[in-house]
């Protein structure tokens, strides 16, 4: 059954325009989105002025039993959003639990309709898609205004050639390591990826912070830097020592000091799912099955038969049934994950490698237990630390406020976006089940909305959005070397709810296929840059940092048809509409029936400065390229 047209005018999200705590006013943008158990919150719902809604009830679920609270139509438009073509319904309910779910029941003469974060339905939806307000949540609030930059340390900059790996210096994967010259391409033949070294290190990052600050970056995410034989360091040999080829512990302390001088944050990568085969825990366990660390691993037939990551013998999997391992990794007073949060390193959070597999093996399914334990330990050290998990699939069960602060938002953001732009299936490249077809615009909107609907809004604003990483082809390669499509991707990245992360070199148009081709050395010769691309990133980052609506504003998809998708972000006093088009489709005016706009709303296109014409519930899209983006702003 197709929903009647008026249901498209119904909107609510967790932003300050729609959810306000007791100490927050309707005209206060930049709300902290922080709520306490026991306090009431005001909930608002927007519907079209002509929608046949007669009564509205908010259905909550305090302590496991549903409660129905009636909302009332309010004429206090000036304090909310002055629009003569919509009505607002308003009410309050108390926050009684750490996670407070709710949805709406809209009564009409023809019957009732339910509205949850997944949309309007005639049937009663499951609780899984309820809107959610977190109370007493320890938020890394600095993240909402951050712009991250991911660095693969061996490939960013060689700041100290004296610490470079020398040809044949030691063995990695049973073969001699290889020293390469900066600017050469990584060898694509099997067996080379992890043992080629280009000399990048932490001093190189320090020496190029001015470049990053000029770009607009405010936070760094580094792939693993701890001692390990490979260049990628996911086969860690010592969690308590920075690899000497990256500069050692002192280099990390120096990086921290340099970042402090620029008010920049630092996120490090931890590999708690598995260690490397050269780690002392594992070598001791191999030598003696009665070793205290033998219980850290899954031995089936000692010594040669043990569980490893995807059958890779150099990466033995860690067994979190061991209380001693939990204490060593995160729970104990001097645990690894705690210690790096302390001076002189004072990192600002962790990216947890393969969080989807952590603590899970056969009958031992401790993933959520370990996640909650890690969160407790990290927040005890620093309540504002950012706990991010890698997850290529559906990680929403870990994003409910009691485990991760965010996930690497592949499935809920970048994977469908790249399929929409070019048909490139980043999740399954070169696999027989890869889907090479362009994702329809309606499907992109549905996938974005599905993943947003499964998590609290406070978490959505912290989601780690990216276009590519050290694990995926670069964005320019994914969009078939079309710079216009790459710019569309960048514009969506910097305007979508969540925190954006740029993979080093994407801003200058670097190319690269799958690992290790996506890990080419950074290009520092300006003649090798796409300067127009870099300037476009700078422009977008500047907008992201200046506009509160891009940091905490709500999210509503306005249009998803043909080759175009459009969405709006809202705060009290601010509105921004993004129109993205992958190819010409003849759309000359964007319909805004469900946007809640007043007839006198004026817009300015932020990339060009052109004033927008809004008439007859449409926004004229004059000047929108066949492949391109417009960012329309109305505000103070």
Task: Give the structure's gist in a few sentences.
The chain has 636 residues and is an alpha+beta fold.
Distance between the termini: 42 Å
Task: Tell me the fraction of residues in β-strands, as a range.
Answer: 25-35%
CATH superfamily of the largest domain: Glycosidases
How helix-rich are the residues, as a percent range?
10-25%
Structure in words:
The chain is an alpha+beta fold and 636 residues long. It has 4 domains: 5-137, Immunoglobulins (Immunoglobulin-like), CATH 2.60.40.10; 148-172 and 200-272 and 320-550, TIM Barrel, CATH 3.20.20.80; 274-317, Alpha-Beta Complex (Oligo-1,6-glucosidase, domain 2); 553-635, Golgi alpha-mannosidase II (Immunoglobulin-like, Sandwich), CATH 2.60.40. It is built from 14 helices and 36 strands. Strands 1, 2, 3, 4, 5, 6, 7, 8 and 9 form a 9-stranded antiparallel beta sheet that branches. An 8-stranded parallel beta sheet has the order 25-24-21-18-15-10-27-26. The longest helix has 16 residues, at 531-546. It is globular. It starts with 18 loop residues before the first strand and ends with a strand. 51% of the residues are buried.
What is the element layout, followed by pairings?
Blueprint: E1 19-21, E2 40-48, E3 53-60, E4 67-74, E5 86-94, E6 99-108, E7 111-116, E8 119-121, E9 131-134, E10 148-151, E11 171-172, E12 175-176, E13 178-179, E14 196-197, H1 202-207, H2 209-215, E15 219-222, E16 226-227, E17 238-242, H3 248-260, E18 265-270, H4 280-287, E19 299-301, E20 305-306, H5 323-331, H6 336-339, E21 349-352, E22 360-361, E23 364-365, H7 367-381, E24 386-389, E25 406-407, H8 410-422, H9 441-453, H10 457-460, E26 464-466, H11 475-478, H12 483-495, E27 499-503, H13 531-546, H14 549-552, E28 556-561, E29 564-571, E30 574-581, E31 589-591, E32 603-605, E33 611-612, E34 614-615, E35 618-620, E36 628-635
Parallel strand pairs: 10-15, 10-27, 13-14, 15-18, 18-21, 21-24, 24-25, 26-27
Antiparallel strand pairs: 1-2, 2-5, 3-4, 3-6, 4-5, 6-7, 6-9, 7-8, 11-12, 16-17, 19-20, 22-23, 28-29, 29-30, 30-36, 31-35, 32-33, 32-36, 34-35
